[in-house]
Write a structure and sequence with these properties.
By secondary structure, this protein is mainly alpha-helical. The chain has helices at 4-37, 42-45, 51-65, 77-102. The protein has four helices and no strands. It is elongated and about 60 Å long.
Length: 107
Amino acid sequence: MAYAAPIFVYDVRLVIELILLVFALVIEGVALVHAITQRSDAFPAIGTLPKGGWIAILAVCLLLTLPFFGFGGVLSIFGLVGIAAALIYLLDVRVGLRDLHDGKGFW
């Protein structure tokens, strides 16, 4: 009975890491698809990196977040940097592109 707790802890850790991995891959995938589908002249208009730069950053981050490359998955430094890059794109660049396209502003 004393050995049940450590085994259960590893199962919980595995489930939490799997949920975080799915979350990270969805966020990074959505950011990458959004960057691919935008017009290339809109990126310099909002004062950010060009479209090719964002696509390269997001694609490399997505590949480094995958756990079968030996880098440790979502909880490694590469996975955390990938999540940060995708969130910067989604929360800053995507909003700027939407404002440029719609002209309505954030609110």
